[in-house]
Design brief:
Helix content is 40%, strand content 21%. By secondary structure, it is of the alpha+beta class. Helix 2 runs antiparallel to helix 8 and helix 10 packs across helix 13.
């Protein structure tokens, strides 16, 4: 299918320009020109929990995802895609139309949202235990998905997932946002990693016996606290759409400083006077001097030159 090549190439190129949190919706809109659909869902979660940890829904109310979760035990498509990972399935492949439109899953879920035709597949990451669901929906029962559209969906689903991973990797390793001594991961609200930089899990295992606790991070996510320390590990969490970007690094001397002390220290290392620093951060020069004195004591230095050497050796790039 040579006509798929531009679509696939565009997926990977877009990783540098499309924000990772917007990538799923953007990719589905690109796919729509190849496989027309009325609605779609892209969600990830673990089989153990049976719930989406993060999900993008297009063309349907947001509660459609929870309706799928609540009815998965009666959904024959659920077992079909789990037993055929990476393969695209149309609803009529599992149940003939006569049975499907009389089935409990249709009556209790799909018909409530106007879904008449379903094209779906699932992909698994054995490292994290995450399953990703790709589904396209049509509201007109007469508009069956064709065999060619099934093939397109199967190929596109694989590359959409790989390109999504690539987009997050670019986000994690972008030089302007990544400190040289910090390792990052994208996790969901349950603390399950979706993407990790090399060394992230190694550092976790160094600080926490056993590393990941089951499939989850061994510490609590605190996105509203700025940086915090657990077991000698510094952690900083910020929201990334319905996911979280987690950065970790081993605690060093600079991490013992308060936020104000760090501001003063970095100002001093830029060659600013106490008066200039105070003007920037809204403090009196005497207060700046007090913060700098406490920083000297904590860091074990006695001069600006020694402070600058320490900061330039340890400060994130």
């Amino acid at each position: 299918m040579k006509f798929l090549q531009p679509f696939i190439s565009n997926l990977y190129r877009a990783g540098a320009d499309i924000p990772a949190e917007q990538f799923q919706a953007w990719a589905y809109q690109e796919l729509k020109s190849l496989v027309p659909f009325d609605a779609a869902i892209w969600g990830s979660g673990t089989v153990k929990r049976g719930k989406f940890h993060n999900v993008t829904v297009l063309g349907l109310p947001s509660n459609f995802a929870s309706a799928l979760e609540q009815t998965r035990h009666i959904n024959p498509l659920y077992d079909a895609i789990r037993n055929n990972l990476g393969k695209t399935i149309e609803n009529s492949d599992v149940l003939p139309d006569e049975q499907f439109y009389k089935s409990e899953i249709y009556q209790r879920c799909f018909s409530q949202f106007g879904v008449e035709r379903i094209l779906t597949s699932a992909h698994a990451d054995l490292r994290s235990g995450l399953y990703t669901l790709f589904s396209l929906y049509r509201f007109d029962r007469k508009r069956r998905f064709t065999e060619q559209e099934k093939q397109i969906h199967e190929i596109a689903g694989y590359h959409m997932l790989e390109a999504y991973s690539h987009a997050f990797f670019l986000h994690l390793t972008r030089p302007k946002t990544t400190a040289s001594n910090r390792l990052a991961a994208v996790v969901d609200s349950e603390g399950v990693p979706h993407e990790v930089q090399p060394g992230f899990l190694d550092l976790l295992e160094k600080k926490f016996p056993g590393g990941l606790k089951g499939l989850q991070l061994p510490f609590e996510l605190r996105p509203n606290e700025g940086r915090y320390q657990v077991n000698g590990l510094c952690i900083k969490v910020r929201p990334l759409a319905d996911l979280f970007l987690v950065r970790i690094w081993e605690e060093g001397p600079l991490d013992t400083l308060t936020e104000r002390e760090r501001e003063v220290v970095f100002g001093v290392c830029r060659g600013l006077s106490h008066k200039e620093i105070g003007r920037i951060i809204g403090l009196a020069p005497t207060t700046v001097s007090s913060h700098l004195y406490r920083a000297y004591k904590k860091l074990g230095v006695e001069s600006r030159s020694a402070l600058a050497r320490l900061v330039h050796a340890r400060r994130p790039s």
